[in-house]
Amino acid sequence: MHDSQNPKDQQRAQGSLRDSPRFDRSHWPQRWTEKWRPQVADFFCGRGGVGRALDKWFPEPMFFGVDVEPYGESYPGSFVQADLLSGEPPFDDVVADLIWVSFPCQAYSSLSATYYGSADNALRENHRLNDGFREMLLESAAHYVIENVPGATRVGDLDANTRCNGLFFGEDFDFERHFETTFSVPEAYVSGTPSITIDTREDQSVKELAKAKGVPTTWPKQAVRSAIPWQYTWWLLAHCPSIPCPTPKMEQQSLQTFSNGGVGTYQRDPKGRLGGTDVDDGDGLYQIDRYQP
User: With the CA atoms of 217, 218, 219 and 220 taken in that order, what torsion angle do they form, in degrees rounded to the nearest 10?
Assistant: First the structure.
């Protein structure tokens, strides 16, 4: 049985963020099992936008990517080709401390509504995030991060509890993305007018955007535009109690802004996070003695 949770809050305004994670595992320690495993599994990894962010901090054995397309040549770490939407879990056991999920956004993108004739058609014709998929994630890792466009939150499929944009980190693009996590994360979002646009309906050059995001300028336009900036990845992971990762530089905000329980809570003293608490009895998936060598 997974962590007991209340039903979705029916009082939340459509498209608004949750006040707290739907499946809150913020109390889970870094050392929640004695068995070694990679720290991050990068699901729907593509060519490696998130993978490049992971590669900036983690040794290669500590993360791997999974995608239905053969991106092994471009992904910066180990790579597994598998269909994550087949309905059959691609792995038999716990695979990592955290699973990062860049779930396909075709059902939720504003462009899809144009392509399919309406937003309802786009939802009908494409894969949608559901609780069956969440169940697989909760059985496969201590934590997850599910990333998608704001439209996924608006239709209620993504139970997002935080969001990021580039302006918060001092970048000249907006690129708002919403995240559903199993741990609390402050918003990394500020309003403003970016100088670099991200509009797939315009035949613009993406070289400037690729450089700003830190991905190869040789990537196809859509791959560049959909790539998650490394700052977003580090921001999310820095607040995960099971992952040691630094907080990225913030141009628009100061650490004082989040001094009451936000930035730096976990990464100030990573060693102090090892085995600091026990898994609660109700969290039956990961009893610490289950994986004793």
Answer: 110
Query: What value, to the nearest 5°, has the Cα angle with vertex 238 and ends 232 and 240?
Result: 110
Look up the CATH number of the domain holding residue 97: 3.40.50
Q: What is each CA distance from 219 to 60, 174, 200, in whole angstroms?
A: 22, 20, 14
At 76 the three-state DSSP class reads: coil
Q: What is the pLDDT of residues 12-64, one digit of tens each?
A: 455 689 999 999 998 876 655 556 678 899 999 999 989 999 998 888 888 99
- The 10s digit of each residue's pLDDT in 195-235 is 776 654 555 567 877 877 778 888 888 788 778 899 999 99
The CA distance from 87 to 273, in Å, is: 35
β-bridge pairing 141-148 and 177-181? antiparallel
From CA 288, how far away is CA 187, in angstroms rounded? 32
Is residue 77 one of the residues assigned to a domain?
A: yes
- 19 in any annotated domain: no
Predicted model pTM:
0.79
Contact 235, 249 (CB under 8 A): no
What would the two tokens of residue 112 be?
Answer: 């899809």
Q: Which residues contact 90 (CB under 8 A, 6 or more apart)?
A: 66, 80, 82, 83, 84
Domain residue limits at 231? 40-291
CA angle 174, 105, 233 (to 5 degrees): 50
Place of tokens 């068995």: 35
5 assigned to some structural domain:
no
| Tally of domains in the chain | 1
Q: Please identify which residue in the block is written with the tokens 């169940």.
A: 135
